[in-house]
Every structure is written in C-alpha cells, then in structure tokens.
TrEMBL record:
It is found in: Cytoplasm. The record marks 111 as: Important for acyl-CoA specificity. It is an enzyme of class 2 (transferase). Its main location: cytoplasm. It comes from Nostocoides veronense. Its EC number is 2.3.1.31. It catalyses: L-homoserine + acetyl-CoA = O-acetyl-L-homoserine + CoA. Keywords: Acyltransferase, Amino-acid biosynthesis, Cytoplasm, Methionine biosynthesis, Transferase. The active site is at 142 (acyl-thioester intermediate), 235 (proton acceptor), 237. This is Homoserine O-acetyltransferase. NCBIfam families: metA (TIGR01001). Transfers an acetyl group from acetyl-CoA to L-homoserine, forming acetyl-L-homoserine. It comes from the Bacteria.
Amino acid sequence: MPVTIPSALPARRILEGENVFVMTQGRAGHQDIRPLHIAIVNLMPTKMATETQLLRLLGNTPLQLEITLIRMASHDPRNTAQAHMDAFYITFDEARERKFDGLIVTGAPIETLPFEAVDYWPELCTVLDWSRDHVFSTMHVCWGAQAGLYHHYGIEKFPLAEKMFGVFPHRVLDPRNRVLSGFDEIFPAPHSRHTETRAADIEATEGLELLAVSEEAGVYLAASTDGRQLYVTGHPEYERDTLKLEYDRDISRGLDATVPRHYYPGDDPSQPPMVTWRSHAYLLYANWLNYCVYQGTPYDLGAIGPQITPTADED
C-alpha cells in the first residue's frame, strides 16, 4: 500500500522513478481506508534529501500512511528554500491539537553542542512531552535518539575521541523483540556522529531495553519496554552515496577527515561504495510500523492515551 504525500513534493518524482508506491492526497481521499497518520519532525539541514530517504523506507509496507511534515518555528533552516518549507511543512503549533499513530524525530548535525545550547531545544522538549500523549509510537533517529533519551530519561551523551563514521556490524541482543523480527544475528548499519550514548546507561535505566549493539560503534537500537519509544543511534535511512558526500565535503574543506570504515571496498575511497544495509533498514521501519504502531494504535485517533514511560525528573 502507498505512502500518501502532496502531489508537488519533490520526493514524489524520485520515489516513483524507483517504483516506490506513493499516492497523492487527492487519490487517497477517494479510498475508504483509515490510513496511519505519521508525523516527521525533520531537523536535518538537507530536508528534501531526508524526506526522500524516510519516505522510501516508509513506503515499503502493506500499510497506507498519511505523512505530515513538521518544522521547528524557533529555527530558520538555511539549506532549504523557504518556498519548500511554506508549501510542505507545518509548525508544531499547527500540529499540537492533533494526534498521530506514529512520529519520527530525525537527527541533526549538532551533537557536539550541549542540548540546552541548541536554539530550538525548548520547542523540541515541548514536542517530546506532547508526543507522550498525542502519539502512539515515536522513532527517534541519531541525534534525535540522543535528545529523546536525555529528555525522557536523563541519559547523557559523551564526546568521542574520533568521529564514528562508516557502516558497522551490529549484534542482535533480543531476537524475540518484535522490532528485530526477521533480523540476522549480525547486521550492518551506517553511523555518522561525534558523540555516543553508553550501553551501561541504557541497561541501568528502568523501562528501557537495549536491543542491538556494535563492538566498534556501540549502541545502535534501544526501546521502551512498551514499544512506544524507539531509539536508533545510526542512520539506516542513508543512501548509497550519503557517507561519500559527507566525506568528500570534509576533504574539500581541508579537514582531516577519516575514511568511513567498512563502506568502500577495501576502505579505498577511490572505489564506488557498496550498499549493504538496505534490507535491514526496510525491515526496521516495517517492523516499527507493524508491531509498534499498527498492531496497537486505536482506530479512533482521539483514543490515543498517555505513555507511562517515566521522565527523567520522575521517581
């Protein structure tokens, strides 16, 4: 079944060219189906690229999805045209009275800043609080995962001596967890970050379960025990050349950039990179939509109730 998006969204042409099933809002309105309502808080600077990456993964399930793109009113994006933001995004204030089956909070290239130094941090905290009783299940990605773990549980992030950059093997810790249904025992996923969340902190936190880790990259996947919050510290949505473009950008700026590990054949950046993580990326999003969202969310969106996950300042 398709993912429903505005007919003029640039991602539509790209996805249709890849045979991803997308449907315009006009056509979807004639179908007698209750779609899942999924909101995306897109914090990435390259918003159009991130839209395409996420919609590609969301569109690979039997479920019909209606997508709402949300922006931070307290931050003006510098890398996306204002006309695009005005045409396809709404502010959180415009969304706060609505309820959603699912929410995705993306990463952002600001993880070296203290959370409180981010200009939209107060607004994002309001969104995270709002999500606990207006969203059935939330997926937090990369910096969004660090932000969610810090806000909801008080779990800190720590600087790394060297950027975690590349595609790393990960080990499944709980194969019985539905989010990992169908996963291989060892699976690859991309990372690109300067900070880390420590496994011991997650394991010591009531209400959280550590689901997948890497010997090299550390924590990859954690979830609340009720499945209503999922934390992904990597970037499963990345395309073939995303890490390459980031590496090439840093080299062009004269930075002492590290070659992304396990990404190029033989770790040789003169070779074209190989995609090894795509199937598990699709599976992660499909499992989240099916088991964490669709199987539990009420038919009447208004019946979505508060999550019981404790916040950092609760006993």
